[in-house]
User: Fold this.
Amino acid sequence: MFAIRTAKDMIEKSRAELEHYRLNPNPHTIYNLFVTIYHIEDYLLQGPRSNKKRTHNKLTRKMIKEHFGDLYQWMKFICDKHKHCHLNNPNHQLMQNEAAQLHYTSAINGAPLNTMPLCGVDQYLLTYKDSTYELGGLAEILIRKWEELVP
Assistant:
């Protein structure tokens, strides 16, 4: 159990959620992981709790979006949309008015050629425009981006 008071606490929790995902990749661990990662922003913008009040940080949402670049929309998409989509659903979800697809693969022909080894481990992937991310790798990148912002 975590005592969550600061953005650093949320980062620590996100690292624990990433480990849970890596040990048991499934829709529940994905959702917990990305909700935790996305909501680091709340603790960073509002500052740490002190006697049940929050002190505000000088960062703005605009500054955070600029720091993350295109990765911000990926993080938000997974957090907001994952609860509404099925991982094996062939239908695309819209992200920034473009088709994006969250999908699971463990079978031959389940992923684009050369994106994972034959007989490899199960993976959850997000494809958007010309990019594909494995969700554990994407989570690691996002956590590092948050660590760069947290004092």
Observations:
- Helices lie at 7-23, 27-38, 40-46, 61-68, 71-81, 135-149.
- Confidence is low (pLDDT under 50) at residues 86-91.
- The chain has six helices and six strands.
